[in-house]
């Protein structure tokens, strides 16, 4: 059977399951649509959060980033998991006790202000839409590679599938579909990693294989990898970084951003009890960790495999002939994500680090520059092929990558649609809207969001990495501090919260735009985006953490200069702190 | 509201804050401490071809986070019961 047919079978079968679940779990009421009837078990919910959280960025891109950056990019591993500790202790149980549907609703009620709710809606929509674009684009790329269709067609197929189950099912449909998607994506991620770990280290658990002995050389795997890549002029994989302040702030931004992303928070409204909200966060992290503990192993092993593919006789010997390159290089070359230029015209593939330090050795070997450019994002998708694994594993990876992208897209779309229909329309424009009307508005806004995201995904504005940083920066600098202060302080009032959110957001956006261009328009940046220009060496990607601190500070200062919140608001804060009585919230 | 006496309610909240504070110290210590800022100090402890700081950055911190959340959930549910604010 051809690889194409295998891919079709795996992707087709997984989609059939998702759609069947969506039809089976069709939502009846608005409550069902938003929060799955409040009756989801913590383990089930944890699994759904896992699928919701692990997007194309986690599944497809993260291992590639770690492979390229080594220790320095551990920030993604810590940042995208550490946020759950904050969620479990600082937000989830209290928001569950509050017992409403959406994040802006809490902010609006707690800060007794429609404007606060509106600001929260804006933050939510900007953060979520930017994230959806990335997911749709990722799904489009995966489709086009594995189904051998062009990128636009792949994107449209993805949009149709997301539309069907998100719009039909709402939260209940999404919750159970996401459980299925979690299973698909974790199996898809783990199986090739196990194969590769056994090949390289003899250890079937990739996370342990990472710190085991490399079978062929008898050295520890990481020492072997360090040796191979430093021979070719790259930095050591495990090398420490100099700019620790930036590393700390970047990790902190990812953590706070994780805790502040509304599509994850909304999940904690779906458990029956406050105690379950705490357990849910724990289970979510367990399921996320299954992938996150494997990812660094995938990263280092794939990097080593790539190097040994190009230099089969060791780094001191000549690399392979271009004409004898393995099939996976040929196929990825078609997509343009691997590019080869024979700079010294010897017919071989010289892959090394074009740095000044390595110049003399390159000259001595007759190398005229690095000849192979490999896009980092293909690493996980190409991984089974690099390791010569059977065709069905490749099909599985295709299904897994799509599951990751689509599940996150669906969760984000739900957060967007509930913000529009519930917070914007019912909360401000037309409070008397019927339940049916609200449900219809939710579905229409979902469809609009899908259309916008698909269109932007088909016309990528070319700033994917910045967009992700922006989504985290916005969530970290605006939503998280407002939510946390709403629970932990009785003194912060409406004026304080609104000024905090606006300055936190404004500060973060301004810092990003100064280096990345205003509204990301190329050429409009005031300073070049290089470490020498960054204030105190803080990169625009890390600024969200500083924005959050600004938000906290402004909110406290302004609140203390203005009047106390009314007594009933202080009582509301009091009530979210105590679990008893949360059950009532489900019954209306 | 059936929180009971306000005195107890205050003690309950203090107990929660203490638990959160302690947990977050550990949270910061393993990630920002061991994995980043204190890594050079842990360089002498070898593990599988690298050092302990690298392990904390790529695996140890994640495992600690999981343990922290479950510990917090377990401990907090106990405290809920102790103060009588748990749900039936």
Topology:
The complex is a heterodimer of chains A (588) and B (88).
Chain A: H1 3-24, H2 30-35, H3 42-53, H4 56-69, H5 74-98, H6 103-110, H7 114-146, H8 151-201, H9 206-209, H10 221-231, H11 244-260, H12 262-265, H13 274-292, H14 295-310, H15 327-335, E1 338-340, H16 359-364, E2 372-374, H17 379-386, H18 391-429, H19 435-458, H20 464-488, H21 494-516, H22 543-561, H23 567-576, H24 584-587
Antiparallel strand pairs in A: 1-2
Helix pairs in contact in A: 1-8, 1-18, 3-8, 3-13, 4-14, 4-18, 5-11, 5-13, 6-7, 7-8, 7-18, 7-19, 7-20, 7-21, 8-14, 8-18, 8-19, 10-14, 11-20, 11-22, 14-17, 17-18, 18-19, 20-21, 20-22, 21-22
Chain B: H1 6-37, H2 39-42, E1 46-47, E2 50-51, H3 52-82
Antiparallel strand pairs in B: 1-2
Helix pairs in contact in B: 1-3
Task: Write up what this structure looks like.
Chain B: This is DUF4212 domain-containing protein. Chain B: It comes from Marinobacter metalliresistant. Chain B: Keywords: Membrane, Transmembrane, Transmembrane helix. Chain A: Belongs to the sodium:solute symporter (SSF) (TC 2.A.21) family. Chain A: It is a multi-pass membrane protein. Chain A: It comes from Marinobacter metalliresistant. The complex is a heterodimer of chains A (about 600) and B (about 90). Chain A has helices at about 5-25, 30-35, 40-55, 55-70, 75-100, 105-110, 115-145, 150-200, 205-210, 220-230, 245-260, 260-265, 275-290, 295-310, 325-335, 360-365, 380-385, 390-430, 435-460, 465-490, 495-515, 545-560, 565-575, 585; strands at about 340, 370-375. Chain A is mainly alpha-helical. Chain A has a single domain (about 5-300, about 390-585), classed as Sodium/glucose cotransporter (Up-down Bundle). A two-stranded antiparallel ribbon of chain A has the order 1-2. In chain A, helix 7 (about 115-145) packs antiparallel against helix 18, helix 11 packs across helix 20 (about 465-490) and helix 17 (about 380-385) packs antiparallel against helix 18. The longest helix of chain A is centred in the first third of the chain and has 51 residues, at about 150-200. The model of chain A is unreliable at about 585-588 (pLDDT under 50). With about 90 residues, chain B is mainly alpha-helical. Chain B has one domain. In chain B, about 75% of the residues lie in helices and about 5% in strands. Chain B has 3 helices and 2 strands; from the N terminus they run H-H-E-E-H. In chain B, a hairpin with a 2-residue loop joins strand 1 and strand 2 (about 50). The longest helix of chain B has about 30 residues, at about 5-35. The two termini of chain B are about 15 Å apart. The interface between A and B is large, with 54 and 47 residues.
């Amino acid at each position: 059977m051809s690889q194409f047919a295998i891919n079709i079978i795996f992707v087709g079968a997984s989609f059939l399951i998702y759609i069947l679940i969506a039809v089976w779990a069709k939502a009846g009421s608005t409550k069902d649509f938003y929060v799955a009837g409040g009756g989801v078990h913590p383990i089930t919910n944890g699994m759904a959060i896992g699928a919701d959280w692990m997007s194309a960025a986690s599944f497809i891109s993260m291992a590639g980033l770690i492979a390229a950056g080594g220790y320095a990019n551990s920030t993604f591993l810590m940042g995208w998991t550490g946020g759950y500790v904050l969620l479990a202790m600082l937000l989830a149980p209290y928001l569950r006790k509050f017992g409403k549907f959406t994040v802006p609703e809490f902010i609006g009620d707690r800060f007794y202000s429609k404007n606060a709710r509106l600001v929260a809606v804006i933050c939510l929509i900007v953060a979520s839409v930017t994230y959806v674009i990335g997911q749709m684009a990722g799904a489009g790329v995966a489709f086009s590679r594995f189904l051998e269709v062009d990128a636009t067609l792949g994107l449209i197929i993805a949009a149709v599938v997301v539309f069907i189950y998100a719009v039909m099912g709402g939260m209940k449909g999404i919750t159970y579909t996401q459980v299925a998607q979690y299973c698909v994506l974790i199996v898809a991620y783990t199986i090739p990693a196990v194969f590769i770990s056994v090949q390289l280290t003899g250890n079937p658990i990739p996370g342990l294989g990472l710190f085991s002995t490399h079978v062929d050389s008898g050295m520890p795997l990481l020492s072997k990898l360090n040796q191979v890549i430093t021979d070719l002029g790259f930095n050591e994989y495990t090398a420490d970084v100099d700019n620790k302040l930036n590393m700390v702030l970047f990790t902190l931004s990812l953590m706070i951003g994780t805790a502040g992303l509304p599509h994850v928070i909304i999940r904690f409204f779906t458990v029956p009890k406050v105690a379950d909200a705490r357990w849910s966060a724990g289970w979510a992290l367990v399921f996320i960790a299954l992938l996150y503990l494997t990812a660094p192993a995938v990263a280092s092993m794939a990097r080593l495999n790539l190097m040994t593919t190009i230099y089969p006789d060791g780094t001191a010997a000549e690399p392979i002939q271009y004409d004898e390159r393995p099939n996976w290089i040929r196929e990825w070359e078609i997509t343009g994500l691997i590019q080869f230029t024979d700079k010294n015209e010897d017919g071989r593939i010289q892959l090394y680090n074009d740095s000044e330090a390595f110049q003399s050795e390159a000259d001595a070997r007759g190398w005229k520059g690095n000849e192979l450019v490999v896009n980092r994002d293909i690493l996980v998708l190409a991984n089974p092929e690099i390791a010569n694994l059977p065709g069905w594993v490749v099909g599985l990876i295709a299904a897994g990558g799509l599951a990751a992208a689509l599940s996150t897209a669906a969760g984000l779309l739900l957060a967007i649609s509930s913000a529009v229909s519930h917070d914007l329309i019912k909360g401000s424009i037309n409070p008397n809207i019927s339940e049916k009307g609200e449900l219809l508005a939710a579905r229409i806004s979902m469809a609009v969001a899908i259309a916008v995201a698909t269109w932007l995904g088909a016309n990528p504005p070319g700033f994917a990495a910045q967009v992700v940083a922006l989504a985290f920066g916005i969530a970290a600098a605006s939503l998280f501090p407002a939510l946390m202060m709403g629970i932990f302080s009785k003194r912060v009032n409406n004026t304080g919260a609104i000024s905090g959110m606006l300055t936190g957001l404004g500060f973060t956006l301004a810092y990003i735009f100064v280096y990345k261009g205003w509204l990301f328009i190329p050429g409009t940046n005031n300073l070049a985006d290089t470490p020498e220009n960054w204030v105190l060496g803080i990169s625009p990607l890390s600024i969200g953490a500083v924005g959050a601190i600004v938000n906290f500070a402004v909110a406290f200062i302004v609140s203390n200069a203005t009047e106390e919140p009314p007594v009933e608001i202080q009582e509301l804060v009091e009530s979210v702190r105590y679990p008893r009585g949360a059950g009532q919230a489900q019954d209306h | 509201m059936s929180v009971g006496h306000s005195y107890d309610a205050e003690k309950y909240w203090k107990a929660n804050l203490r638990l959160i504070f302690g947990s977050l110290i550990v949270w910061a210590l393993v990630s920002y401490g061991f994995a980043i800022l204190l890594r050079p100090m842990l360089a002498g402890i070898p593990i599988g071809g690298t050092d302990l700081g690298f392990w904390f950055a790529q695996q140890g911190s994640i495992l600690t986070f999981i343990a922290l959340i479950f510990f917090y959930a377990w401990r907090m549910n106990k405290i809920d019961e102790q103060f009588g604010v748990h749900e039936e």
